[in-house]
Amino acid sequence: MATLMAKPLAGCVARRAGAARPNPAQRNVMVAASAGTAALPAVRAGPALFEHITLRDLEIRNRIWMSPMCMYSAEEGMPSDWHLVHLGARAAGGCGLVMAEATAVLPEGRISPGCTGIWNDQQMEAWKPVTRFIRSQGAVAAIQLAHAGRKASTCSPYENRGAPLIPGKDPRAWPIYAPSAVPFDPSHQVPREMTQADIQMVTDAFVAAAKRAVEAGFQVIELHMAHGYLMHEFLSPISNKRTDEFGGSLENRMRAPLALAKAVRAAIPKGMPLLVRISATDHALPSDGPAWDVDQSVVLCRALQDRAGVDLVDVSSGGSLPRGFATVGPGYQVPFSERIRAEVGIPVGAVGMITQAAHAESILAEGLADVVFIGRELLRDPNWPLRAAAELGYAGAPYPFQYSLTPFPLGLKKGQGVSIP
Ligand SMILES: Cc1cc2nc3c(=O)[nH]c(=O)nc-3n(C[C@H](O)[C@H](O)[C@H](O)COP(=O)(O)O)c2cc1C
């Protein structure tokens, strides 16, 4: 890797009056320049995927990041050997950043009884071996802090397809709360409407969890504001029917999420990056009534950057409505990250069915995102980053020394096996 970090190129930030419209490559440099240190260098020695990225004081070795994925394998919120091996394998497999799953800041904020937590010191201690190993591999240890709101207290997807756990019917169930007393669907509990004291209590719990995460060795914190969980429930009119200052106008619906991001930002070290995952849209139909959409996401992201000091937005979608949404296909959420990056100028991550090295590379090279989050493809292949490097003909992939004598052959074709010499 020849160049460490992008310096915005002089003359590339603004288009001079009368100058020709930029081609996509030029546009990338321009957008990247406004996105600060996350910018790709204009001249690269290798693939964009393997360019370092700097957020605040943290330099991250590449732009292939592991998306947070619930493992439903914790007891009482405690991460286990599973989490060490699962997350550790992706760090050894070459990811730049490895994100631990949605981790509850309060016991009642878990999706299921098997979700991880960080609401007490015992859990904090249990995360330490995980972060130590991820870091020992040269990857960055990140954690997604979460509260499931009205989608809490369910089975894992592996049991009864994630059916709700109802108090009085199942001893594992717990009562739930949300911005409004509107259930996710008729089979779920009706949540209790949160008081303003509840909102403050949850904010405080996120702050306490963030401090524990820092102490546990995590280097990046992501706040989960997507997928129909508590903070998204405040944002979306689908789930927020409040008439106080936390409901109604967009500014009011953003109040709790923004206050949360601000409070966490103030509680963690200045040099530590803070990320937020959003659902860019509810994928609602006109018959669903007022809902969350990309226009509002643009306003939110601007506020997260300007008023809360958020460093990167991880752009997902959906989760407020029980039915499936839209058509999905490779990179189906990339248009959302592209628009937010272009209009807000905040660094963004793209996620969703990004499985091919060449596709991932083009997303970065065309300036549609600053990093790619890979989810299920990393479950299939923990060495995806190393394989991607070989497919792209790049010799500088971060192999652990223990594996360095048996790299994937350069120029490997997708799906091609490796012959043993
Ligand atoms: C098993 C599993 C668990 C997931 N858990 C989380 C989670 O904890 N937090 C989150 O924001 N998204 C979660 N997701 C969504 C993924 O992070 C990712 O956004 C989604 O799978 C789309 O990316 P992909 O097509 O690369 O898998 C989960 C997805 C899967 C498959």
Folded structure, characterized:
The structure is a single chain. This protein has 421 residues and is an alpha/beta fold. The protein has 11 helices and 12 strands. The protein has an 8-stranded parallel β-barrel with strand order 3-4-5-8-9-10-11-12, surrounded by 7 helices. Strands 1-2 form a two-stranded antiparallel ribbon. Strand 11, helix 9 (357-365) and strand 12 (371-374) form a beta-alpha-beta unit. Helix 3 packs across helix 4 (196-216) and helix 4 runs parallel beside helix 6 (250-267). The chain is globular. The model is unreliable at 1-36 (pLDDT under 50). The structure holds flavin mononucleotide. Flavin mononucleotide binds next to strand 4 and helix 10. This is NADH:flavin oxidoreductase/NADH oxidase N-terminal domain-containing protein. Keywords: Flavoprotein, FMN, NADP, Oxidoreductase. GO terms for molecular function: FMN binding; NADP binding; NADPH dehydrogenase activity.
Q: What is the class in the CATH system? A: Alpha Beta
Give the overall pLDDT as a whole number. 91
Strand runs, count: 12
**Low-confidence sequence ranges:** 1-36
Structural class by secondary-structure content: alpha/beta
Overall, the morphology is globular
CATH topology: TIM Barrel
Describe the structure using short key phrases.
oxidoreductase; 31% helix; NADP; disordered N terminus; 12 strands; OxRdtase_FMN_N; FMN; 13% strand; eight-stranded parallel beta barrel; TIM Barrel; binds flavin mononucleotide; NADH:flavin oxidoreductase/NADH oxidase N-terminal domain-containing protein; alpha/beta; two-stranded antiparallel sheet
